[in-house]
Amino acid sequence: LVGIATTRQYQHVYKHGYRCRNRELISYFAANDTFSCRLGVITSKKQMSKAVYRNQLKRRIKEWYRIHQQSLPFGDFVIIATHQAYKLDSKELRACLDGLIQKLVKHCKYC
Question: Are 99 and 93 in contact (CB under 8 A)?
């Protein structure tokens, strides 16, 4: 699993990427020239003060990403959790992520 590591990489995705959201998650996608998929997950301390829950949500998102990585387009993905995301169980979270990625992939076909 390759991740987005630096602030500069996150800023590039924010500036040049396509934004898509639902009530629980906000996602950004920007194509890259490395022919790989990279993921960045952001969970805010303001949204959930307990680190245990923030880390649990990150692990669930990363696991979903690991499973679906082969079917995703090459590029950088940033997923930001809103306060509603912490209320989801694993099945609902997977459905939200599937819906967001379908929107992103649909948009990428027209780029």
Answer: no
Q: Where are the alpha helices (DSSP H) in the chain?
A: 7-16, 51-68, 90-109
| N-to-C CA span, the chain | 26
CB-count exposure of residue 90 (10 Å: 0-12, 13-18, 19+): exposed
Could you say which DSSP state residue 73 is in? P
How open is the CA angle 57-69-4, to the nearest 5 degrees?
65
pLDDT attached to residue 41? 95
Read off the pTM. Answer: 0.89
What pLDDT does 109 receive?
60
